Amino acid sequence: MPSATDPPAALPLTLDLEDFKGDFSFDALFGSLVDELLPEFRGDDAPGVPPPPPPVLGAAPPVFPAVDELHGLFKHSCKELVDLRRQIDKRLQNLKKEVATQDAKHRKTLGELEKGVDGLFDSFARLDSRISSVGQTAAKIGDHLQSAESQRETASQTIDLIKYLMEFNSTPGDLMELSPLFSDDSRVAEAASIAQKLRSFAEEDAGRHGVTSAVGSANASRGLEVAVANLQEYCNELENRLLARFDTASQRRELSTMAECAKILSQFNRGTSAMQHYVATRPMFIDVEIMNTDIQVVLGDEGPQADSITIAEGLSILYKEIADTVRKEATTIMAVFPSPNEVMSILVQRVLEQRVTAILDRILIKPSLASLPPLEEGGLLQYLRVLAVAYDKTKELGKELQSISCGDLDIEGLIESIYVSHKDEYTEFEQASLRQLYQSKLAELRAEAKQQSDSTGTIGRSKGASLTASPQQQISVTVVTEFVRWNEEAISRCTLLFSQPATVAANVRSIFACLLDQVSQYLTEGLDRARESLNEAAALRDRFVIGTSVSRRVAAAAASAAEAAAAAGESSFRSFMIAVQRCASSVAILQQYFSNTISRLLLPVDGAHPSACEDMGSAVSVVEATAHKGLLQCIDTVMSEVERLLSSEQKATDYRTPDDGAAPDHRPTNACTRIVGYLSRVLEVAFSALEGLNKQSFLTELGNRLHKGLLNHWQKFTFSPSGGLRLKRDITEYGEFVRSFNAPSIDEKFELLGIMANVFIVAPESLASLFEGTPSIRKDALRFIQLRDDYKTAKIASMLNSIMAE
Q1: What percentage of the chain has pLDDT greater than the value 70?
Q2: Domain Exocyst complex component Sec10-like alpha-helical bundle, which positions (predicted)?
Q3: Residues 106, 88: Cα–Cα separation, whole Å
């Protein structure tokens, strides 16, 4: 309430609680309080409000004229707000008391409700227990009732079975007095079921009766032997009747009738007779025309002479037709038989054992190893190729049949049993085939060589004809490649026919051993033929060796013949080097084949790979031994010609001072020039034919022989100082040539020869210093010093003794 002391402007203010409800805004409340006192602060000028009076001149204007009014207004507002707060606090206290009272009542009510709910739960638990007890009792009653009903039905069925059994046990062989059930075609299924039950019971009883009689029981009854016989007869008659109905329905393609008969027949020996009968009556097993067509499809128009490619194509066509037929039969079997997998197993087994085997018996006729078929008719290779394609196509057929359905039948094992007789002797046939091909190839090569020899004519070797073997007699890398191709084909057949790693490894080793024998024998024989040419050339050289006391005419004839023999030796040398080169290429092909094909098949089996490596090493070592002998003969041939040239071309005056006072000739001697030319020409083929250690070994041996031969040759001459210079020129020429051998030991020997030639050049008094500078030549140099033409006149012997004494 406003007091009397409040300013008049503030008295009208009255605040109510409703002002603070809803969307309360302090700004709005404050504006409503001061709008009338401060109209100049409004956003828009209030209509009818006069503007403030202008300031009086000389008087200071008030800073805030409405401050007193506002102060009174704010004090009055604060008082009203305090009053409102007291009212609200009082109302809150009243509300708290009411809430406390209501909460106490509510808690009391909840407690009473909880007690009521607990009691209700107890009642529900007792009711549930009662219901469960009643349900168990009802279930027991139901079980008893069901058991009683089952016993009643069993008793009723037993009574019927006993009645039927008495009918079957009445008179032996009399089936006319049986109940209508056993003759009603509409109740065949029921009759079959009952007959099977009676038969089982009767046979069991007959078995017990037989045992009782055996122990001598006097009270044994007659038993049910008559019932057993009658039931057997009835079951046979019923089964035959059902099979006849099944056949009729099968011919008419009445699948529902077939399925009904098959279901009933399944009660007789699990339906085996029906399954076998259905499979046996399939046209592909009984139609002779189909069997003849199969052979025609496989062999084609060629008949028994058909090759493996034709047979492979024919088998693909036939096996596709068989798979399609089995697929169609599978559709029928699935719709008819209650156990289709068993029927499919019988069908697929019959297909493989009868239809497929009949074809294989016609195309796989095992030849005799004692009398091989000629290669003109295909030889053993034809049989092996047909075996491989037939096995491959049959395996494909097995996979196709497996994808269709074959029950629990082991198709892979069945196929293996079909081919077991062929696979048992496979390795022997493969080895015999490779030997047959090898012998045929050798015969072909010999025939070609003879034909070429006959066409070119025979040239008398005694007149110096070339001894070079004809091209067909030379080793051919193409022939070795053909051997490898045969073996590779055999290996591919082996890996096709066998899958066990141990078996594969054993067979592969046997087949690869054939290749090793063939390559080793072929290369060895080729090298031996080339060696024969070397031997013949050597014999021809020896034939024309003559003494010194012969006439000029005889000597000229002998020299001409020796030239011809030398040409023959050079030709045979070239032929042997070519043979060695081809041997190396052939062995490289063999090793590459072993690395790429054979190794991966042997590595999975312990010991197989090292053994095969050992076998290959043994085969190659035989070839290497023959090649080594021939290379030594080549060195003999070369050195024989070198010795002939030295003997015929080296003159005694080559290393002496000219008697006519002419200037010394510092060019290489004619013998040196001829020998270096000969060696350069003849060794050209050796440089290209030999490689690696073989080349190094050959050239090193030839270099040693050449060094030794030259030393022995020069010991036949005496040397003047100018002759020593010419000898040194010869040695330099020889050294330059042998440097192409890339043999450091040979280079060193010829360098020492050049140093040793100084013993003919230096003055006698300088020999001591020569020995001191190069002590390694002392031994040979002491022998060569004696060849100086002034050895005696200069008393060099006494000088040497003093040198040796020092």
Answers
A1: 75
A2: 190-799
A3: 26
pTM, to two decimals = 0.68
Q: ∠551-552-554 over CA atoms, to 5°? A: 65
pLDDT recorded at residue 142: 82
Q: Of 202-211, 274-283, 580-589, 656-665, where does mean pLDDT reach its minimum? A: 202-211
Residue that is written with structure tokens 């060195």 in the block: 635
Give the model confidence (pLDDT) of 689-723 as tens digits. 998 888 999 999 999 999 999 999 998 888 888 88
Residue 442 Cα distances to 451, 483, 609, 654, angstroms: 14, 11, 30, 55
Contacts of 111 (CB under 8 A, 6+ apart): none
DSSP 719: B
Higher confidence at residue 172 or residue 404?
A: 404
**pLDDT tens digits along 409-432:** 899 999 999 999 999 999 999 999
Q: Please write the tens of the pLDDT for every residue from 286-297.
A: 888 888 888 888
With H, G, I as helix, E, B as strand and everything else as coil, classify residue 54: coil
Task: Enumerate residues 6+ apart whose C-beta is below 8 A from 403.
Answer: none
How many CB atoms within 10 Å of residue 483? 23
Selection from 26, 14, 15, 9 nearest residue 65 by Cα: 9
CA atoms within 13 A on the CB side of 802: 9
- The CA distance from 567 to 544, in Å, is 14
Rounded Cα gap, residues 706 and 712, in angstroms: 10
Of 516, 533, 387, 417, the C-alpha closest to 465 is 533
Q: From CA 527, how far away is CA 742, in angstroms rounded? A: 27
Q: Which residues lie below 8 Å from residue 389, measured CB to CB, with a gap of 6+?
A: 308, 311, 312, 315
Exposure class string for 321-352: b at 16+ Cβ within 10 A, else e: ebbebbeebbebbeebbebbebbbbbbbbbbb
CB 755 within 8 A of CB 747: no
Q: Is 657 exposed, middle or buried (0-12, 13-18, 19+ CB in 10 A)?
A: middle
Contacts of 666 (CB under 8 A, 6+ apart): 725, 726, 729
Q: What is the three-state SS of 782-806?
A: HHHHCCECCCCCCCHHHHHHHHHHC
How far apart (Å, rounded) are the C-alpha atoms in residues 609 and 492? 18
**Per-state percent for the chain, helix, strand, coil, to nearest 5:** 80, 0, 20
Mean pLDDT, residues 114-130: 86
Q: How many CA atoms lie within 13 Å of 278's alpha carbon, on the beta-carbon side?
A: 31
CB 719 within 8 A of CB 727: yes
Helix (H) or strand (E) holding 17: none
Q: How far is CA 13 from CA 70, 74, 79, 323, in A?
A: 12, 10, 11, 112
Q: Could you tell me if 625 and 580 are in contact, meaning their C-beta atoms sit under 8 angstroms apart? A: no
Both tokens of residue 77?
């507002």
Q: Could you tell me where the DSSP H helices lie in 498-607? A: 501-543, 552-593, 599-602
Give the containing element (helix H, strand E) for 424: helix 411-424
Count, in order, helices (H) and strands (E) of the chain. Answer: 27, 0
Unique residue bearing structure tokens 């209030």? 46
User: Do residues 18 and 88 lie in contact, with contact meaning Cβ atoms separated by under 8 Å?
Assistant: no
What is the average pLDDT value for the chain, to the nearest integer? 80
Q: What are phi and psi of 719, to 5 degrees?
A: -125, 135
Q: Which residues are within 8 A (CB) of 670 and not within 5 positions of it... i.e. 6 or more apart? A: 649, 650, 651, 654
Residue 757's H or E segment, with its range, is: none
